[in-house]
Amino acid sequence: MELTTAAPRRRSATRDADGMAVASFILGLVGLLALNVVLGPVSIILAATALFRGTTRRGRAFLGLGLGVADLVVLVAFMSADNTLSWSF
What we know:
Elements: H1 13-31, H2 36-52, H3 58-82
C-alpha cells in the first residue's frame, strides 16, 4: 500500500503582495498618530512594492501610499508650525 501526500503549497507572490498592501494601509493609518517619520516611508515602500508585484488589493495599496505621503506632510506641517527641524524634549 502506497501512501501519497499532497505537495506543500508555496505562498504565491500575489498573496504576499496582498499582505503588503494591507500592512501599508495599517502602517500609514497608525503613522498619522505616532512615529510618522518612520511609518510614513515604510508605508510608501510597502505600497509601491505591492503595486509592482500586482496585488489584487490595489485600493488598499493606493490608500497606504496616500497615507504614507500624508504622514510625511503632517510631519512637515508640525515642524514648520513649531519652527524647528528636530524634536525637543
